[in-house]
Design goal:
By secondary structure, the protein is mainly beta. The protein is built from no helices and 16 strands. The strands form six sheets. A four-stranded antiparallel beta sheet has the order 6-7-8-9, with no helix packed on it. Strands 1-4-5 form a three-stranded antiparallel beta sheet, with no helix packed on it. Strands 10-11-12 form a three-stranded antiparallel beta sheet, with no helix packed on it.
């Protein structure tokens, strides 16, 4: 078994390894040419027999490949995963034969639309991203409890749409 490590290091043991290295029970070695600067790699994961890495990295490798926040080692060199992600990828996990990733990407991951959580594989669910909801409109309601008259006020000049349910979950006003 091999042990992989990632971080903000220039050397692993006596070997030049800018950010990703492997231990083979005897010595540390760089993963790749050793000249690719992958300082901001956050996570490593084995998926389909290849080493995947992610972080807040946009870099050009010694082979001229541009890596955008998620990349893999193809046994020869680091390559982008289908164009990468348009924001940082902070973690990855393999689950049910798919690679899931989370981070600060908001519109694209591996060529697929995604929001903060993405799935990469052949059996991904149709939607796994998080869509930010707009903040709620501030309002006040008084008195509570009441005797049948409830006052609702808001600083928003637009129309408010509301539903009121009783303690049993029954809709009493909309």
């Amino acid at each position: 078994d091999l042990l992989y490590a990632a971080g903000a290091f220039a050397y692993a043991g006596d070997s030049v390894a800018f950010g990703v290295a492997v231990w083979n029970d005897t010595i540390w070695r760089p993963v790749g040419s050793g000249c690719d600067t992958l300082w901001t790699t956050q996570d490593l994961e084995m998926f389909n027999g290849e080493l995947y890495a992610c972080g807040a990295t946009v870099t050009v490798t010694t082979y001229g490949d541009t890596l955008r926040n998620i990349y893999k080692f193809n046994s020869t060199k680091w390559v982008s995963v289908d164009g990468g992600a348009n924001g940082s990828v902070l973690m990855m996990e393999v689950f049910e034969n798919n690679l899931y990733a989370g981070g600060g990407f908001v519109s694209e991951f591996g060529g697929v639309p995604a929001n903060n959580i993405a799935c990469y594989g052949t059996t991904c669910p149709t939607s796994v991203g998080i869509i930010e909801q707009p903040p709620p409109v501030p309002f006040s309601m008084y008195p509570n409890p009441n005797d049948g008259v409830l006052h609702i006020t808001s600083q928003d000049p637009g129309e408010l749409i509301f539903k009121i349910f009783n303690v049993n979950g029954k809709l009493v006003e909309h």
